[in-house]
Design a protein that fits this description.
single chain; alpha+beta; YaeB-like fold; 5-stranded mixed β-sheet; 5 strands; 29% helix
């Protein structure tokens, strides 16, 4: 997923911020760092939903939508819960 024109803004939903805040300090840092590096990382498109992608962060999955230069992170869950 190449970004042309440089700057990309990452916006986290209320649910995502709440989930990250509920984690221990090390996990919070790992999740924040990975989300702030979007669109880079282990990113795969969700075939059934247009413009929707998933980011793998260890045992966690973050689902996000890309619109122009804005990435909206809509969900973050453990691997088993993210795809339900």
């Amino acid at each position: 997923m190449a970004i042309r024109g440089g700057f990309v803004r990452v916006v986290k939903s209320k649910q995502v911020r709440k989930y990250i805040d509920s984690q221990d300090k090390l996990t919070r840092k790992r999740l924040d760092d990975a989300l702030n590096e979007l669109p880079f990382g282990d990113v795969v498109p969700i075939v059934s939903i247009p413009n929707t992608f998933r980011l793998r962060i260890g045992k966690f999955r973050a689902l996000f939508v890309k619109e122009a230069n804005i990435i909206k992170v809509t969900l973050i869950e453990s691997r088993g819960q993210a795809y339900k």
